[in-house]
């Protein structure tokens, strides 16, 4: 009995020792396992860094920039669209409208930039895709989409005279904006008018929509005038931007100024101050006097209709006091309806003798405007848009400077006072 007990005691001591040994092993294993975990994380970080480095080596170093930025709106139709690249060269650029219509453009000779070949359309969404390579031949890609300024958020200026035209010495540069301009100084600074004669040219605002330019005295005959519209992106009013970028040139013809004297009922046509022809006329009657002042021919019509009702001359039945469908050799002097024109319906005896018109200046003519030998035909053939017709001794008031192209009726100081810059 005692012997069995001794045996069990030895067994327990053996188990305890074994447990201690096993515990030691387990502790050592646990410590070893902790060291192993740290080594494994370090190895993972090294592997990731190596992977990142490898990926970087495989990525192109070319950096493509597309303007306007992706998602832009109210973008310029002229200068905004462009693609540039650094640390590489452009290999392909495509631009299309949202519907897929391609837009032509060209990569520069150094392959560092691209621009569309012509101005973009307003209120249109464009998509741009660009591709470039770096020095290692690795390819980079970039894409963007933007929308150009809408008509509602833009303004344009309709100008006269036309590019490449030849006009008389009195022709101002007249710009009519399709939206009211509140930032007049900014818009005027975006417009320059210069003459090869060196004359000082100043702008004058007649209202929020009209800006005219002229020198102190009539343009120098034979000179060239240049109009530059640099209005792209210029804010004309809150939320309204310019879109025009244009250069216009026109030629000034010979210096012709004609003087209509309602008292003597004659018109002297002068060139460079010398009278080249005197023509009998019939101007406004005492009831319908002709405006006085310096007037500029703004339109020419070989034949045109003149209806009294359109300018306020109506009978009690509401019909015009006159309605002539084929007025020959008509040239407009005012927006309100003052013309210098041929007259075939009046007796030949009135010209040079009696003022009979409703405010226009009449010259003897024939029906159909087919006779080149009449005074009206001669004057029509020898006149340019922009020629000056000075009317005097009518007894009426001086024409308003904004009634037609007639800003010459303002003094130079008054004209300059209307400038915003």
Summarize the structure in words.
The protein has a 5-stranded mixed sheet with strand order 22-21-20-28-23, with no helix packed on it. Strands 1-2-6-5 form a 4-stranded antiparallel sheet, with no helix packed on it. The model is unreliable at 1-39 (pLDDT under 50). It is α+β, with helices and mostly antiparallel strands and 421 residues long. The protein has 3 domains: 63-149, Sandwich (Immunoglobulin-like), CATH 2.60.40; 153-253, Immunoglobulin-like (Sandwich), CATH 2.60.40; 256-405, L,D-transpeptidase catalytic domain-like, CATH 2.40.440.10. The protein contains 4 helices and 28 strands. It starts with a helix and ends with a helix. Keywords: Acyltransferase, Cell shape, Cell wall biogenesis/degradation, Peptidoglycan synthesis, Signal, Transferase.
Could you say what the CATH topology of the largest domain is called?
Answer: L,D-transpeptidase catalytic domain-like
Low-confidence stretches: 1-39
| Average pLDDT figure | 88
Strand arrangement in the largest pleated sheet: 22-21-20-28-23
Structural class: alpha+beta
Number of strands: 28
Backbone CA Rg: 42 Å
Task: Measure the end-to-end span.
Answer: 127 Å
Can you give the helix content as a percent range? 10-25%
Strand content: 35-45%
Q: Please give the CATH class of the largest domain.
A: Mainly Beta
Domain module tally? 3
CATH-derived architecture of the largest domain: Beta Barrel
Number of helices: 4
Region (Disordered): 99-118
Domain L,D-TPase catalytic: 256-392
Protein name: Ig-like domain-containing protein
Pathway: Cell wall biogenesis; peptidoglycan biosynthesis
């Amino acid at each position: 009995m005692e012997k069995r007990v001794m045996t069990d005691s030895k067994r327990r001591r053996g188990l305890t020792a074994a447990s201690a040994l096993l515990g030691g092993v387990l502790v050592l294993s646990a410590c070893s396992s902790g060291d192993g975990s740290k080594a494994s994380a370090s190895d993972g970080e090294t592997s990731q860094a190596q992977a990142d480095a490898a990926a970087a080596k495989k990525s192109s170093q070319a950096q493509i920039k597309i303007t306007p930025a992706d998602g832009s709106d109210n973008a310029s139709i002229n200068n905004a669209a462009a693609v540039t690249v650094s640390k590489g060269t452009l290999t392909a650029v495509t631009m299309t409208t949202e519907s897929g219509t391609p837009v032509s453009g060209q990569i520069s000779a150094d392959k560092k930039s691209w621009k569309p070949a012509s101005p973009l359309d307003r209120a249109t969404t464009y998509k741009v895709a660009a591709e470039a390579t770096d020095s290692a031949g690795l390819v980079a890609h970039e894409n963007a989409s933007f929308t150009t300024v809408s008509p509602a958020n833009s303004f344009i200026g309709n100008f006269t005279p036309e590019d490449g035209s030849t006009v008389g010495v009195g022709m101002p540069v007249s710009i009519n904006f399709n939206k009211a301009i509140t930032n007049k100084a900014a818009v005027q600074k975006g417009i320059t008018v210069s003459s090869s004669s060196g004359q000082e040219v100043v702008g004058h605002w007649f209202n929020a929509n009209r800006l005219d330019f002229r020198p102190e005295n009539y343009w120098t005959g034979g000179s060239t005038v240049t109009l530059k519209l640099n209005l792209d992106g210029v804010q004309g009013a809150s939320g309204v931007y310019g879109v025009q970028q244009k250069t216009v040139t026109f030629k000034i013809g010979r210096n012709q100024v004609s003087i209509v004297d309602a008292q003597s009922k004659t018109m002297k046509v002068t060139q460079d101050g010398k009278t080249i022809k005197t023509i009998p006329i019939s101007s406004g009657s005492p009831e319908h006097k002709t405006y006085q002042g310096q007037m500029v021919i703004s339109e020419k019509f070989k034949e045109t209709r003149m209806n009294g009702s359109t300018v306020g001359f109506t009978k009690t039945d509401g019909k015009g006091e006159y309605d002539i469908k084929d007025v020959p050799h008509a040239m407009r002097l005012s927006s309100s309806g003052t013309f210098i024109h041929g007259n075939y319906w009046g007796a030949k005896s009135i010209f040079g003798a009696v003022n009979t018109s409703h405010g226009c200046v009449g010259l003897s003519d024939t029906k159909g405007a087919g006779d080149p030998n009449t005074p009206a035909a001669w004057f029509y053939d020898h006149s340019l848009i922009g020629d000056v017709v000075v009317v005097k001794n009518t007894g009426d008031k001086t024409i308003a400077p904004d009634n037609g192209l007639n800003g010459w009726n303002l003094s130079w100081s008054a004209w300059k006072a209307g400038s915003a810059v």
